[in-house]
Amino acid sequence: MELADRLSGASRIGLGLAAVGRPGYITLGRAADLPAGRSVEAMRARAHELLDRAYAAGVRYVDVARSYGRAEEFLAGWLRERPDAADVVVGSKWGYTYTAGWRVDAGVHEVKDHGAATFDRQLGETRALLGDRLDLYQIHSVTPDSPALHDRDLHGRLAELAGRGTVIGVSTSGPAQAEAIRAALRVEVGGRPLFRSVQATWNLLEPSAGPALAEARDAGCVVIVKEALANGRLAVDGPGDVAALAAALAQPWASVVLSGAATGDQLASNLRAGTADPGEWADLAVPAARYWRERSELPWS
C-alpha cells in the first residue's frame, strides 16, 4: 500500500519526538516542560505517554531520527508494548549523528554527514531498533550543496532500500529549501524518481518553501511539514499553537503537519488545530535568511 494511502483517513497531525528523545533541544520554553533530571527513564516515560495520547486521538504518523538521541529506541519500545498499533506509520531520518552524550550543555549536539558510509551505518542502527517498522527513511536536512543530491552510489543504495518496501525521502532546512526540494525532485534511478516524500519547514514566519512543496505534492510526493510553530516562537510570541498549526494544515499540499509537543497538555492543544477554522492570519513572514539566522541562535535547553 502506498504511503499516502496508509495515511489517508488518519489525523493529518503527526507526532515528532525530537523534543523528547534527547535532553537538549532548541524549542522555546522547553526548560519547564520536561521531567526533573531528564534521565533516560523519565524521558522514555514522557515519550510513551505522548505516544499513547496521540494514538488514542487518531495520530498515525510518528517522526524520529538517528540524531534525536534515543527517540528511535523509545518508539521501538512503545511499538513492542502496543501490538494494537500496527497501523502506525514510522518515519525516521539519517545523516546526523547525535554527539551530545545525553548532556544539555554539550558543545556540539549533532554532526552532519550525508555520505554513503554514514547511510550504511545508520540504516543498520535504525533497523536494529525498528526492524521492519521503518516505513519512511529520509535524508536529514538536505541543502542545495548536499552531496546526497549528486552521489550516484548513495542513490543506488537508497533505491535498493526502496525496492524492499521503505519509502525514500528528504527533509530540508535553511533559506534555500525550495532549491533543495526542486533538486531532489529531479533525482532519478532507473528512470524513476527516487524521493517520494519531502519534509520541510513551513510556518507563518518562514513560508518560502510553499511553492516548491506544492510542486512536490503535484509530483506525487507525501509532504510533511515540520516546525510549524517555529520552534515555539509562534506559540510564545505569535498567534498561538492552534492558529499556527491550522495555517499549516490549510495548505493544500500538506499531507501531514507535525506536532513537536513535549507535554500532554501541549499535545492536546496542538490536536485542536485539526478541527480549527484557520480563518485569516496576519502576514508574519520574515526574509528566509533572517529566519534561519535567528533559528541558529536559539539556545539548547
From TrEMBL:
Domain NADP-dependent oxidoreductase, first and last residues per copy: 44-235
Source organism, top-level taxon: Bacteria
Gene3D superfamilies according to UniProt: NADP-dependent oxidoreductase domain
InterPro entries to which the protein is assigned, alphabetical: AKR2_Oxidoreductase, NAD(P)_OxRdtase_dom_sf, NADP_OxRdtase_dom
SUPFAM superfamilies: NAD(P)-linked oxidoreductase
Protein name listed in UniProt: Oxidoreductase
Annotated source species: Spirilliplanes yamanashiensis
Lineage, top ranks: Bacteria, Bacillati, Actinomycetota, Actinomycetes, Micromonosporales
